[in-house]
Design brief:
alpha+beta; Pseudouridine synthase; 3 domains; nine-stranded mixed beta sheet; 34% strand; disordered N terminus
């Protein structure tokens, strides 16, 4: 009988990668998973190959809480090229149209941007990772297939001009703070359409994702360099604890006995949840002494019902 292939070790935590240019988020994820020799990994919101910056990678049981990071706000710095519209909305796509943008002023651009601040409707790009009948839209787009997409409500909390370089192909550096589900390439395309000249993204950098900043990240070369001189378990000190993904939620602590029932999937009574929680609240749940057990939902009776449980080794 053939030996079972080693699928990696059980390691739980969140690694903060500064994703490099020209590598897909999945390629970066697989490399990190390999360097940690982890049995399971997932990222928390893909960045395009042309994008760089904060890419939290969840290992092991932390993958159960990746959705909370997917749902968090993001901050980006981006460069838009005005006067050129491309098929993909970025510099990798074929040019669809060109127009002279040399007459544009920063005041005109600022006025156009005003319409894109606050709560707006945005139609996702065909070159996004959204799925249609199980297929990512970008795969359909590359086959020449376009499908109808529904506009989605998003929030643009900040959309500021950092620098403007006028010319036939003017360049605009912007800083944006956006809600989940926002596509910066679509922001560029919509701004270009509003200005009547077309636009696309030539550079994109995510410097904040949820609670994480780029100052906390590590590059792949830095991680690879460390791995050359040590075994995978010796890298575990680089991992953030799993519960940091839900650090903004109320924490409740359960006694050893009550924690046992919670881990079996039962609703349990929590004085903290009863006194301070509201029905439907998501709370972090810990065993007395500090062990993170997962997240739960506060019920109408003030109990805590398991939602995502950590499987302990």
């Amino acid at each position: 009988m053939a030996r079972r292939r080693n699928r990696g070790r059980s390691v739980n935590g969140i690694f903060l990668l500064n994703k490099p240019l020209d590598r897909s988020s999945n390629q970066a994820l697989q490399r990190v998973k390999n360097l940690f020799d982890a049995n399971k990994a997932g990222h928390t919101g893909a960045l395009d190959p042309l994008a760089t910056g904060v890419l939290p990678i969840c290992l092991g049981e932390a993958t159960k809480f990746s959705q909370f990071l997917l749902d968090s706000d993001k901050h980006y710095r981006s460069t838009f090229v005005l006067g050129v519209a491309t098929e993909t909305g970025d510099c990798d796509g074929d040019i669809l149209s060109e127009a002279d943008a040399s007459t544009l002023t920063q005041n005109q651009i600022e006025s156009a941007i005003e319409a894109f601040r606050g709560e707006i409707q945005q139609i996702p790009s065909m070159y996004s990772a959204l799925k249609h009948n199980g297929q990512p839209l970008y795969k359909l787009a590359r086959q020449g297939i376009e499908v109808e997409r529904q506009a989605r409500t998003i929030n643009i909390y900040k959309y500021e001009i950092v620098d403007f370089r006028p010319g036939p192909r003017a360049e605009l550096d912007v800083e944006v703070h956006v809600s989940k589900g926002t596509y910066v390439r679509t922001l560029a395309e919509d701004l270009g359409a509003a200005l009547g000249c077309g636009a696309h993204v030539s550079a994109l950098h995510r410097h904040i994702a949820g609670p994480f900043t780029e100052q906390e990240t590590m590059t792949l070369p830095e991680l690879e360099k460390l791995r050359e001189s040590c075994e995978a378990p010796e890298l575990d000190y680089l991992l953030k604890p799993m519960d940091i993904a839900v650090a903004d939620r109320m924490a409740v602590e359960l006694s050893e006995i009550v924690a046992g029932y919670f881990q079996l999937g039962q609703e349990v009574m929590s004085t903290q949840a009863f006194r301070n929680g509201q029905e439907g609240d998501i709370v972090r749940v810990f065993r007395e002494g500090g062990t993170f057990l997962g997240v739960g939902t506060v019920t109408e009776e003030g109990k805590v019902a398991p939602k995502r449980l950590v499987v302990e080794n």
